[in-house]
Amino acid sequence: FQQYADAFIGQNRAKLTAQHLKIIRCIQTCGTPATGWIGFDCDTCMNLQYVERSCGNRMCPSCQSGKTEQWLDKRLSEQLPTHYFLITFTVPKELHPFFIHKPKEGFTALFNAASGALKELAANPRFIGVDLPGFFGVLHTWGRTMDFHPHVHFVVPGGGIDRKAGLWRSATESFYVPGRALAKVFKGKFRGPLRDAGLDECTDPAAWTKHWVVDLQAAGQNRDGILKSLAPYVFKTAITDNRIVSVDKGKVTFTYRKSGSNRQRRMTLAGSEFIRRYLMHVLPSGFMRIRHYGFMGSGCSIPQHELVALVRMAHGFEVDAIEH
Description:
By secondary structure, this protein is α+β, with helices and mostly antiparallel strands. It is built from 10 helices and 12 strands. Strand 9 (244-248) and strand 10 (251-257) form a beta hairpin.
């Protein structure tokens, strides 16, 4: 960004928003004297140490590592004593231009459709039959080479609360809801609001003739594994500094791994293309990448210890009395 962003701005100023320009400047100056200094002094030896300030921008890869650890610790402490699922909702590539040009509408529709589909099928008595499931989703917009690939990962406890009976009802360890039906409902819930808002005409018609994909993975009791694998994507954006191999002669070389392979590969892009790909993943101002639903939502009045007690009771463990 320090070497190539100014030229990139000159070539693309008409396409860049004020938010893009702010992010570029933040990344350029992060950890440099331009952001100012913080002084630390030792009470014993009186030694004074100065450190350059970080920019603090949420799209800066250098400023988010501490937040990742805090988020992971909190999520680990909130786990329920049951099995979990990782469910990923992906949109067809024909919709990518719509997301790029109308990101707020696209990402909002993605969250609403995916969460709505999960709630609808979890309520079906053929599957779980609960009116209060709970889960949280994390928006992820990039592929391994910084290409645009919007999708959302949901971490889902294997069950939910039947509020009428006041009980926890469990899904089986290998089955939450049927993937094909979930994808069909997801597609319908995504398109309906767009059509109502007059945005359906902004999308490629081919997107609606395709079979949509929802990936359901049963994680069993490996709750920590799901959260630890997901944590790096919560606050980082597109690429981190340690993957960049070289910046030279107008080009940037970085490492990546193909899906399903552990072999490290390299890709070289022109500096302007590298910056363009990075900026594709800038979220709308104020847009939340993480959202909680059902009994995990901020509006749920059920305390954590009572959720744990309900789950333990459903699994046959003795528990203390639950307040009603």
